[in-house]
Amino acid sequence: MNQLTHFNDEGRAHMVDVSAKEVTARTAVAVSSIEVNHMIYDQIINQSNRKGDVLAVAQVAGIMAAKDTSRIIPMCHPLALSGINISFSWETDEKYILHIECTVKTKGLTGVEMEALTGASVTALTIYDMTKAVDKGMIIGPTYLIHKSGGKSGDFSR
């Protein structure tokens, strides 16, 4: 597993051939977050942002991004995803932090980690885009993989 696989015999980038792999059920869960100020928090929970329902738009953007991951990450394989779920939870103790969780599933030859990470990332970026008129000082991240299952490399849990 220590050898990079995205290079051909000439040392040039290529998309890995996964045709010899077995089709298995694969799941990946990734998270991201965005820290906002109190005004943005109020707009989001009260759905009063003039651009619309921030979480609904961000959720759709995250789903669309997960489906299109192979179009923006050069060596990702196009996958037929069987399910994508994006959920939200607030942390409001000392700061206003929206936690984003993206779960992606498929039955295929390769995993869906990149799709889950892309979905979580674009969800956070969309929230930023829809609320940046109020405050451009929002902080996105960290973004990371929580869990993945299926495939030759087995399960991973952070």
From TrEMBL:
Binding sites annotated in the UniProt record for substrate: M75, C76, H77, M114, E115
E.C. number(s) listed in UniProt: 4.6.1.17
Molecular function terms from GO: cyclic pyranopterin monophosphate synthase activity
UniProt xrefs under SUPFAM superfamilies: Molybdenum cofactor biosynthesis protein C, MoaC
The entry's keywords: Lyase, Molybdenum cofactor biosynthesis
Pfam family, one: MoaC
Domain Molybdopterin cofactor biosynthesis C (MoaC) stretches: 15-151
CDD domains given in the database record: MoaC_PE (cd01420)
Active site per database record: D129
Pathway where it operates: Cofactor biosynthesis; molybdopterin biosynthesis
Gene3D superfamilies tied to this protein: Molybdopterin cofactor biosynthesis C (MoaC) domain
UniProt key word Lyase: yes
Record's catalysed reaction(s): (8S)-3',8-cyclo-7,8-dihydroguanosine 5'-triphosphate = cyclic pyranopterin phosphate + diphosphate
Record function comment: Catalyzes the conversion of (8S)-3',8-cyclo-7,8-dihydroguanosine 5'-triphosphate to cyclic pyranopterin monophosphate (cPMP).
Subunit: Homohexamer; trimer of dimers.
Family listed: Belongs to the MoaC family.
Protein name in UniProt: Cyclic pyranopterin monophosphate synthase
Chain's gene name: moaC
